[in-house]
Amino acid sequence: MKAQSCWEGCCSEAASSVRCCSFGERWGRCGAGSAAWRGPPAAAAAFSHTAPGWAQSSSGVKGSQLWTYRTHLDRCAAMLPLQGGPSAAPAALLFYSLFLETTLVLAFNLDTGNVIRKDGEPGSLFGFSLAMHRQLNPDKRLLLIGAPRAPALGKQKARITGGLYKCEITNASNCERIEFDNEEDLRIESKENQWMGVTVQSQGPGGKIVTCAHRYQRRMFVDTPQESRDITGRCYVLSQDLTINKDAEDEGDWNSCEGRARGHEMFGYCQQGLAATFTKDYHYVVFGAPGAYNWKGIVRVEQKNSTLIEMGVFDDGPYEVGDELVPLPANSYLGFSLDSGHRITRGRDLTVVAGAPRANHSGAVVLLRKESDTSHRLLVEHTFYGPGLASSFGYDVVVVDLNGDGWQDIVVGAPQFYMKDRDIGGAVYVYINQAGRWDRVTPVRLHGTKDSMFGLAVENIGDINQDSYEDIAVGAPYDDSGAGKVYIYHGSAQGIKTIPAQILSGKPHNMSLFGYSLAGNMDLDSNSYPDMAVGSLSDSALIYRARPVISIRRAVKVSPREIDLTIKNCESSICFTVDACFTYKANHASYNPRLTISYTVEADGERRKQGLPSRAMFLNKFHTDTDYQFNGTLDLRGQKQESCVKITAKLKDNIKDKMRSIPIEVSAEILGIKRQKVRNGLPLLMPILDSSQPSKDVIEVNFVKEGCGSDHVCRSNLKMEYKLYYKPNNQEKYTELLPTEKNVPVFHLNYEKKDLALWVRVNNMNGDDAYEAKLVGSFPDVASYSGVRSQQPTPIICTANQNGSQADCELGNPFKSNSKTTFYIILSTAGMTLDTTEIDIDLQLQTTSVQDNLASVKVKVKVIIELPLSVSGEASPNQVSFGGVVKGESAMKTEEEIGSLINYTFRINNVWKTLTSPVKASLHIQWPKFNKNGKWLLYLVKISSTGPQEILCSPESEINSLKHIRESSASRTKREIGERKPVSKMSSLSGKNKVLSCGKDIKCVELSCPLQGLDGTAVELRSRLWNSTFIEDYASLSHLEIVVKASLVLHGQPKNMILKTPDTKVKVTVSPEGAVAQHTGVPWWIILVAVLAGILILALLVFLLWKCGFFKRSKRDDSVPRYHAVRIRKETPEYKDGTVKLDAFERKQWMTSWIDNESYS
C-alpha cells in the first residue's frame, strides 16, 4: 500500500467535515511494513508498528531534532500530535510553528546582566518544563528542569526515556539528574520515548513534586500476534528531598488510566500527565489526560495530603470529569493545561481550571468543582470559549490575583490567534473575576507580534516588584525570528497593565525558542523578591533574579519662596537657596543596605525644552555642570536615614519672564551599594528605583507681583481693536480701507499704493497687570511684516523672523492695568501677484498673566488689483479735407486716388511693469468702415506695429480689402489732371457739423490685435479718407468728426482684477476744402466781444486805483524823510593838466538844512 493511499484512507475530506483516523485505525490499515511508516529511527528500533506519517524536522537548536507530523491536510495535522503513536514529539505541544520579528525593548527589575544559565545534554530538550522548588531540610532552593528526550538510566531497557534535573542557584551551569523510575519490565511496559519530564510542578516550600511521562505505554500479549500497546501515560510524586518514600501512600507512580477500558474511545490513549499540578491548599494533585474518550479528555483530582487521613477524612476522592459530563466534542484535548484555586467561583471552594485547546476547533477553558462530598464527580461551572478558528485557546492557563481583591483571576493563552491584515501572532486573554460572576466578565486581550506564538506559555510569577499586585509572564518562543521573547506584565488595582513592564529576549544568549516554558513565584536568591526561570528548546534554561525595588523620597524647600525684584540680597544680585533631603524605602524592612545616590537639581526645565535660557544659575557648582544644573552625591545609611544638601542659586539679570514661577526640579538615581555578604556565590544585585513613583520633585520659586490681586494671581483683561489702512507712495498719511457689503475691507492694489497698514489698539482696562504682554502676528507671504510705527511715549518694539511671516510686538512687561497703546504694523505688498485675491492675518494677544479669553483674531482683506494699463491714441493729421470730383471704386488704381491720408497710432502704456508681465491682452479697435448707406468712410490700407514682436491683427481681410489698389508712399493726395469742379461756395455751407461714431451713423468692424508686450507697444494704422463718399453725402456740412475707439481686453481675467483706463477715443476733423479756413479761423464776433471785455476791465481797474488814491501826488514834506540824510562825497573834477575845477553849488530839493558848509551832490 502506498503512503498516500494509506493516509487518504485514514483521513478524507468530505463536503462538510474532515475525519482523521486514530492511531489504532492507522496501525490496522497500514501495517508495520508499509511504506507509509516514516517514524524516527529510535521509534522504529523500539517497536515495529510506529505511527504513520511522522517525519524528522530539525529544530535548529544545538543539534536537537523535533518530530512533527507531515500531512497535506492542515486541519488533520492540527490535532494529530496527541493522536500519534509513541514517536509523537514536541509537535504535540506546539501545534503550528510560526516566526516573527519584534523591536520593542523594555526593562524593569528582572536583572539581565547577571543571568544564571543552566545547560543540558544536547538533543534532550532540556528546559521543556520548569518548576521552582525549596527543600527545607536541608534548606536548598532549586530549579527543576524537565528534559523529555534525555537518555535512559542504567537499568532502563530503552534508549530515550526523558528525565528530571535539579539545578542549584549558582553560577555553575551543570545540573544533577534525579534518579527515579530506574526500572523497566518490557513484558508489561515500554518507556522508549515516554517523555518523562514533559511537565513538572512543585507543591511549594517543603512540599512535594509531580512530574509525568505522558507517552508511557502499557503492553499486553508481548511477542504474540495479539500484542497491543496503550499510551496511558504515568506520573510520579516525589518527596520534598526529591526521593520516593515507599512508606508514603501519595509518593511513587500514579496511573489512573491503567486497568480501565481500553481503546481510543475510552482510556487506551489517555496520555495522562501532559498537564499536572497541585491544588493551592496542597490537599490534592490534579492530572490531565487529554487523550481519553477519543481525545475528548478528562481531568482527575486525587487526594495527596496525608493530613486528611489524620483529620478523619478517609474517603476524599478521587474526583473526575469526562465522557458525557463534559459539554465538549471529541478531539477537544480537555486537560491539556491545568491550574486551580479558591475564590474563583464560590468563595473558599476549590475550582479546577482546565484548558481544552481544540474544543469546537477554537479552544475552550472549563471551570470544574466537586459535585458533593459523597460524589466523585467534577461538575462544569462555567466554560470560556475561544475567539476564533484554530486559535488554540486554552493551550496554557494560570490562576492569579492581578488586582489584589482576593478573587482569583484567570489568564488564558491562545498562541495561534491571528487577525487578518494585522501583525498579530498569538493572544492572551485576561479575565478579571467579578466576585465569581463570570458571565459579566469581558476579557482584556493582549496581542503578540506576527507568527510569535504569543501565549504558548503563561505563568504566575508572583509580586515581582512588590507593589502588592501579582504579575504574569507570557512566552512568545517564535518571536524575534525564532530566538523567542518573554513579556512581563504587572498587575494593578484596575487589573492588568496592558503595556509590558519588561521584555526578555533569547537572542543575547544565543538561544532558540526562548520562552517555551516558564516558572516563577519563588525567591531563589533570598532577597525577598520572587525570581523567574525561562526554558527553551535549545537545551538551556535561564534564571532571572529580581532586583530589589526601592523608592527614593525627596523633601525639597526653597528660601525665599517669593522673590522681590527690588531687593538685592546677594551683593548686587538676587539669590535663593534650595534645601533637599533624601531617604529611601524598600518594600521589605529587612533590606537595609547603605546606598550611594547621585542627585541633580535643575532650574527652568520647561523653558529650556522650548529653547529658552534659564532665569537662574547655580553657584559653587562643578566646572563641568551647566549654569542651570547642580549635581552631587550623597550616602544613605539605611532605610529612613535622611541626608540633606543646601544649594545656592542666583537670579540672572534683565529677565523678561517675571510672571511665571521658576520650577526647581530635584531627581536622584542609585549610584552604588555597599558590598554585603555574598550568598551562594552570586553577585549582589543593584536595587532599582520604583517605576511607579515620580522620577523627580518640583518646587516653584515665585515672584512678588505688583498690580495683581490679593491672591497674588494677575488676571489681565487685554482687549484689541484693529483697522486697515493704506499709504500711497511718498506720503505719510494713512487712509482707511472701506469695507464691502460683507464687512470685509477691500485693498485696491496699484502702483500708487504699496504699503498696507494694520492699525492696532490694545488696552488693559479693569484688569491686573499683564506680564510679558505681546501681540503675535502671523502674516502671509504676499503681505509680510515690514515695520512698525508708533507715536507713543514708549515705542513699541516688534521682532520679526527672517521672511516676515511672524512678528512679536512687545506691549510691556508688565503692561499696566488701565493702560492702552496704539501703533501701526506696516505690511509690504511687494510679494503680491496677480493670483492674490485675499490676505489672511492672524493676531494673537499673549501674556503670562491669567486670562482665558485670549482667542486669536482673524483679519481678512479682499484684494482688488488695479492694472495701470492704458491705451492712448492719436491721428496724424487730425484735420483733413475733402474735395475734387467723385470717382468710382473700380476706377481707382492707387491709394492716393481714394483721398486724404490719415495715420492712426495706438500706444499701450504700463506704469507698473513688474506686476503685469504675465497678463495676456489684446487691443480691440472699432474701425469706421461704411456709413449708413454702405459707402466707404475710412479705407484701411496697412497695419504695422512697434515692439518686441510683430503684431498681426485680425481679420486680415479688412486690410486693403480692394486688392486692385496699389499702396504708395506719397503723403499727399494726388490731384487729377484737368478741370476740377468745386465742392461748393463758402456761402452755400449750412454751418452744421456732425459726429460720426460707431453704432449711430456708421458701420464699424472690430479689429483685434493680440499684444506681445504691455509696455511701449504701439499699433499703427494707415488709412485713407474716402473722398467720394464725403463729396456726395457730407458736402453741405461745415465739418465732421470721425471717432475711432480703441480698448484693451484682458484674456482669462481674474475676478479681482480691473483695468483703470481700458479704452480711448481718437477724433479726426473732416471739412470741405473751401471751409477749412473758415473753420480754422476765429469768428469776428468773438474778436469784438473780447476787445470790448478788455476795455471794460481796464476801465474798472483804473477806477479802483483812483478810488484808492493811487493818482494823488504826495507833498514835499510828506515825501522827503525828515530825519534821514545821506552824505555824499564832494565832487572834484580833475583835468588833464592836473587842475581842479569846482562847479557852482547846486541846492538839492530833498535836503533838510544847509548848516553844514560841505558840499553835497
Please give the count of helices: 13
Query: Roughly what is the average pLDDT, rounded to an integer?
Result: 80
Q: Describe the global form.
A: elongated
Q: If classified by CATH, what would the architecture of the largest domain be? A: 7 Propeller
Which value, in Å, is the CA radius of gyration? 57 Å
Strand percentage lies at 35-45%
Residue share in helices? under 10%
CATH topology of the largest domain: Methylamine Dehydrogenase, Chain H
Oligomeric state of this protein: single chain
The total of beta strands comes to 68
Distance between the amino and carboxyl termini: 168 Å
Look at the structure and name the CATH superfamily of the largest domain: Integrin alpha, N-terminal
What count of structural domains? 5
CATH class of the largest domain: Mainly Beta
Low-confidence stretches: 1-105, 970-982, 984-988, 1076-1080, 1150-1161
Q: In terms of structural class, how would the helical and strand content be classed?
A: mainly beta
Outline the biggest β-sheet.
Answer: 10 strands, mixed
Task: Note down, in words, how this protein is organized.
The chain is mostly beta strands and 1161 residues long. The chain folds into 5 domains: 3-94, no CATH class; 116-544, 7 Propeller (Methylamine Dehydrogenase, Chain H), CATH 2.130.10.130; 549-703, Immunoglobulin-like (Sandwich); 719-855, Sandwich (Immunoglobulin-like); 866-968 and 987-1080, Immunoglobulin-like. 7% of the residues lie in helices and 38% in strands. Helix 1 packs antiparallel against helix 2. It starts with a helix and ends in a 42-residue tail after the last helix. Residues 1-105, 970-982, 984-988, 1076-1080 and 1150-1161 have low confidence and may be disordered.
